[in-house]
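Tokens for LysR family transcriptional regulator. Go.
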Amino acid sequence: MRRIPNFVLLRAFESAARLGSFAAAAAELSLTPSAISHQIKELEDVFRKPLFYRRHRRVDLTAEGARFADSLTRVLNALEASCSEVSLAPAGQVLSLYCAPSFAAKWLGPRLGAFTQRHPDIAIRLTTAAEPLDLIRAREVDIAISYGMAVQRTGIAVSPLGKESIVPLCAPSVVANKRNARKLISEFNLIESQLSRVTWRDWFAMNGITAAPKVNQSFDRAALAISAAVDGLGIALESTRFAEKELARGELIELGAREFPRVARETHFFSVRTEEQEIPKIQIFRNWLMSCLNLI
């Protein structure tokens, strides 16, 4: 049995903490200030410690009260979101996506607005993490977009999301009047993405550069590596899919585009439970995704 105080008491506390007033909480909850005061006193008795300092015409949270208010707000926000999902119109649907962080931030996120405009009856719930997700165990997730590899097991259908070009990227100021791209890469600060399928050491070997890579910056997210390159901190070896906006705006350039061959790799994968592939909301999202990636 869960040891949770009466929800009525929690609701009174949350309202008073958020509004900073017993009177305002009473008005919001259609109660009297005296009733709010009694409910909060009852909650304080449960915890055996004060949650508010009573001032003249106002109340302030104690340190314990502030911490509890912060945690309670997050819990109630999550509860409210869950209730909203359940109470969607009959035609409404929730599509739960689990996505690699940089793909979500640099590619998918900027396009989700267009998807929701075309399909307003599908509500997207997006979570991100770097580790591949096992959809057989995580039944609450509909679709996983993973980086590097996908969980391969019976009951999961996996599709690669096309090859990505991985190239040296830097701010135009890095190049300036330096025309020898090979020498610049050998001598300048390099930025490495820790999870990348292609390391600078791999890239040097592919291009016959015998010098050791001078890696001075290392990040665990492609998005961070690209931002660092934009700021002129070094040369990043990253996917042009993630840097499309920066390249279009001229904030980044592909270094040695005429001299070095592009490295192409399948790095992102779309996964869905096999028995759910024909569910309309999943089909709609998959077709939209593949169309945006020019894969259909």
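The first helix runs from residue 7 to 19.
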